[in-house]
Amino acid sequence: MHEIKKIDDFTSLNNFKSKYLGKNSILYAYFSKLTTLEISERKKFSILLNGFKKKIQDKINYKKKKLQDNKIIQEKNKHFLDCTLPGRRIEKGNLHPLTIVINEIKKFFNCLGFKTFYGPEIENTYYNFDALNIPNDHPTKSMNDTFWFDVNHVLRTQTSSMQIRILEKYSVPIRAIVPGKVYRRDYDHTHTPMFHQIEGLIVDTAISFSHLKWILENFIIKILNKNVKVRFRSSYFPFTCPSAEMDIQDKHGKWLEILGCGMVHPNVLKHCNIDSNVYLGGAFGIGVERIAMLKYSVSDIRCFFENDVRFLKQFCNSEKY
Ligand code: DAH
């Protein structure tokens, strides 16, 4: 009966049954021959044969039960829930590095009483250029620099356009910052056609360039989280006078341009019906990507927009919301 031990499925068991108990089995043949025997012999042999038959049947029944039990265990295992296994990890998203930097900048200025405003990205040329004292022949107005919709509408090239919208709508004194996207026809490792700026505007009766310097110096130290050497270099922007650019010194002694700033041009105030003999304004424009590149030592601006998770994951623990 070694044969039955090796059986591990129902089909083989059925085959086994017909082989040893079926109509073609030796046992069946012996049973058929019983009628040819004499009564006393027949009795003896039939007891013997029935004994064999029962033995075989018992073995088959036992095997059948075992196979059924195995099947139940297998089914159970299929649906087995192991509560001791560790849970499946759900990947958590994190803020984009530029959002982290924008939030930090907002926080700094909000603490100084600057309110945050947002404006349209499709901008009227009046707000983007004309009211900002930008003459018609200024290079930013050229087809090569600006994305034009029609003669009166552009994708805003600077958040400075919001200076006018804010001064038109709200009364002075005012302290405002405007984070947002701006667009220019540029593409290389330090320029992308869309980038982020934060405009700053402060208008009051006794605002001077030294206020602006103090604010911006403290801003850069706070944002970069280290003491850096700062210089203000005279520059030109049509909407500020005097205008300057703020540079910081890197660890090799090289000066890096950080942002533009200046005292709001009287013509700009005039466009907004603000008396420039009473009120003075300071303004600045911060390039968010530039700050982020310095803060996180990123050398190619395009990294911020390629959505490479390996790059983005590095900022996982920078800010929790
Ligand atoms: N709008 C300027 C730009 O996009 C940046 C800027 C410079 C803004 C000087 C200002 C400012 O408010 O005073 O390059």
Could you please describe the fold and organization of this structure?
With 321 residues, this protein is α+β, with helices and mostly antiparallel strands. It has two domains: 2-78; 97-315, Bira Bifunctional Protein, Domain 2 (BirA Bifunctional Protein, domain 2, 2-Layer Sandwich). Helix content is 40%, strand content 21%. It has eleven helices and ten strands. It has helices at 2-5, 10-21, 26-33, 39-78, 97-111, 125-128, 161-169, 209-224, 266-271, 288-296, 309-312; strands at residues 115-116, 122-124, 148-150, 153-155, 174-183, 194-204, 230-237, 240-249, 255-264, 280-287. It has a seven-stranded mixed sheet, sandwiched between helices. Strand 7 (230-237) and strand 8 (240-249) form a beta hairpin. Helix 2 packs antiparallel against helix 4 (39-78) and helix 5 (97-111) crosses helix 10. The radius of gyration is 43 Å and the shape is rod-shaped. The two termini are 72 Å apart. The mean pLDDT is 93. Bound molecules: 3,4-dihydroxyphenylalanine. 3,4-dihydroxyphenylalanine binds at residues 158, 160, 199, 237, 240, 260-262, 283-285. The site of 3,4-dihydroxyphenylalanine has 11 residues, from strand 9 and strand 10.
**Broad structural category:** alpha+beta
Helix content: 25-40%
Biggest sheet character: 7 strands, mixed
Q: Multimeric state of these chains?
A: single chain
Runs in which pLDDT lies below 50 for 5 or more consecutive residues are: none
CATH class of the largest domain: Alpha Beta
Q: Would you give the CATH topology of the largest domain?
A: BirA Bifunctional Protein, domain 2
Q: Which molecules are bound in this entry? A: 3,4-dihydroxyphenylalanine
The CATH superfamily of the largest domain is: Bira Bifunctional Protein, Domain 2
**Can you write the helix and strand succession as a string?**
HHHHHEEHEEHEEHEEEHEHH
Total beta strands: 10
Q: How confident overall, as mean pLDDT?
A: 93
Q: How many domains would you count in the coordinates?
A: 2
Amino-to-carboxy terminus distance: 72 Å
Tell the overall outline: rod-shaped
Using only C-alpha atoms, the radius of gyration works out to 43 Å
Q: How do the strands of the widest beta sheet line up side by side?
A: 1-5-6-10-9-8-7
